[in-house]
Amino acid sequence: MDKLIPWLLEGSPWIRYRTRVDLMHQSEQSPEVRKARSDMLTDPQVKSLVTELSEWPGEVLASHKSAGLLMHKLVFIADLGLTADDPGIKKIIARILKHQSADGPLQMPMNISESYGGSGSDMWGWALCDTPVTLYGIL
Fold first, then answer.
1. pTM for the full model?
2. Quick check: helix, strand or coil at residue 100?
3. What's the rounded Cα separation, in Å, for the pair 106 and 32?
């Protein structure tokens, strides 16, 4: 770890932030953590993800495995440490919560082919594999 930590602290802002919080156990209030977090929130790649997520829900689900799906990007920014209090996140959460089914799970636009019992048309629906992913992201 003696060589690993300095190397990680030379990384991207989100790597510096997570290193300080998760590996070095520094307080969120420490100046170094606050700086790393601020750098992360203003990083063009992170800002681009937030901008992309503000267009929730994105493409119609055809497969749940693609890392390019917005639900997976939502989980990624949650794992980075973004919260509802960060710029743009409340808007994303509001867009997600607009499509909650009467049964409770969060819905996504999907197209289930007739061969799998669907209509073959785009519609709002939920799948048991997507709901926990999306819920984790907004929590």
1. 0.88
2. strand
3. 37
> H or E segment at 111?
strand 108-111
Instruction: Point out which residues pair with 125 in neighbouring strands.
Output: 108
Using alpha carbons, select from 133, 35, 24 the residue that is nearest to residue 78: 133
Closest CA to 78 of 29, 126, 10, 14: 14
Residue 66 identity (one-letter amino acid): S
Kindly state the DSSP code that residue 115 receives in the 8-state scheme: G
Residues 6+ apart with CB under 8 A from 37: 17, 28, 81
The one-letter amino acid code at 14 reads W
Point out the residues of the chain with pLDDT beneath 70. 62-64
Report the Cα 56 to chain-centroid distance in Å. Answer: 11
CA distances from 128 to 63, 78, 106, 117, 135 (A): 13, 20, 10, 16, 11
Phi and psi, residue 131, nearest 5°: -60, -50
